[in-house]
Amino acid sequence: MRADALKGSSTHYALYVHCQTSLIETYRRHYPDQFSYDGNRALIFTVENEPPAEPLEHCIALALTYHRWAKR
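^ that's the sequence the OP posted. Answer follows.
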């Protein structure tokens, strides 16, 4: 997982995850309306708005523990 500017944009940034995981699919299931998504690769944010703290914390926790829960 990494956070970085969205390529070609000065107003958006992203939280990128490994695209061969099911993380974005899981995020979409839990938070269909709280985030914007880029395929199976990233959560997209704008610099003008704070991301929703609790859902974002949950997504980060899921990414950090992916190998523990994904094989079940």
